[in-house]
Amino acid sequence: MRKLLVATHNQGKILEYRSLLAGLPLEVTSLEAEGIALDVNETGVTFAENAVLKACTYARISGLWTWADDSGLEVDALDGAPGVYSARYAGPGASDRDRYLKLVDELQSMNTRDRAARFRCVVAICLPDGETITTDGHVEGEIVDEPRGSNGFGYDPVFYLSDHGATMAELSQETKNQISHRGHAARAAKLALAELIADRGAG
Predict the structure, then answer these.
(1) Is residue 66 within 8 Å of 59, Cβ to Cβ?
(2) Contacts by residues 37-46 (CB-CB < 8 Å, ≥ 24 positions apart)
(3) Secondary structure of 128-139 as H, E, C letters
(4) What is the pTM of this model?
(5) Average pLDDT for residues 92-103, to the nearest whole number?
(6) Distance set, CA 42 to CA 98, 147, 201 (Å)
(7) Among 84-88, 165-169, 199-203, where is mean pLDDT lowest?
(8) What is the DSSP string of the chain?
(9) CA distance 82 to 80
């Protein structure tokens, strides 16, 4: 069975993707399991650039088919910020709460009614020979001033989805998996993987 390296140190993501990919003839492995300690600097200016950079770097190092993603929040009134800097928006060592409060403060100081925003995710699959596939997903919403909910992380408590009448952090995990940017991108990537396996074989 062919190995697929999921290029993240986040064990929760690895479990999530292992579950998602369970129907494919692949053994999902991790950086730790392969003894890879290298951290790739995310120097890209788009989610796609960062996802491809990580996937292809680890594919070269490991010799394995490699899956990596990059995701974040884009706010229209902030010209798409924080974007690829979502995790670093409030500086080093900041908490999720620090980041979303900084975001809300910025929007309040602008006195704007435009609160449109989206979560975006790009998944990159890179093969050791350099062949690369990318898929992306997004979910539209708006930023609210008061954080609500505890079932989430990052900017979830201030990201409101009008169709559901709730913030992302108020939704069940099952609903989040169905509608989230990461879910959309990952399901499209799974289809791409299935086509790769059909073309190149599972071993």
Answers:
(1) yes
(2) 40/7, 42/70, 42/84, 44/70, 44/84, 45/84, 46/84, 46/122
(3) CCCCEEEEEEEE
(4) 0.90
(5) 95
(6) 22, 29, 31
(7) 199-203
(8) -EEEEE--S-HHHHHHHHHHTTTSSEEEEETTTTT--PPPP---SSHHHHHHHHHHHHHHHH-SEEEEEEEEEEEGGGTT-BGGGGGGTT-TT--HHHHHHHHHHHHHHHT-S--EEEEEEEEEEE-TTS-EEEEEEEEEEEE-SS---SS--TTGGGEEETTTTEEGGGS-HHHHHHHSHHHHHHHHHHHHHHHHHHHH---
(9) 6
- The values of phi and psi at residue 68, to 5°, are -140, 155
Instruction: Supply the residues annotated as catalytic.
Output: 70
* Cβ neighbours of 55 (radius 10 Å): 28
**Domains in the chain, CATH or no CATH each:** 2-200 (3.90.950.10)
Q: What would the two tokens of residue 5 be? A: 């390296």
Residue 61, number of CB atoms within 10 A of its CB: 17
Q: Model confidence over 6-57: pLDDT tens digits?
A: 999 888 788 888 888 988 999 999 999 999 999 999 999 999 999 999 999 9
- Strands 132-143 and 26-30 turn out to be unpaired
Q: Does pLDDT of 203 surpass 70?
A: no
Q: In one letter, which amino acid is 60? A: R
Tokens of 32: 């730790």
Q: Which amino acid is at 68?
A: A
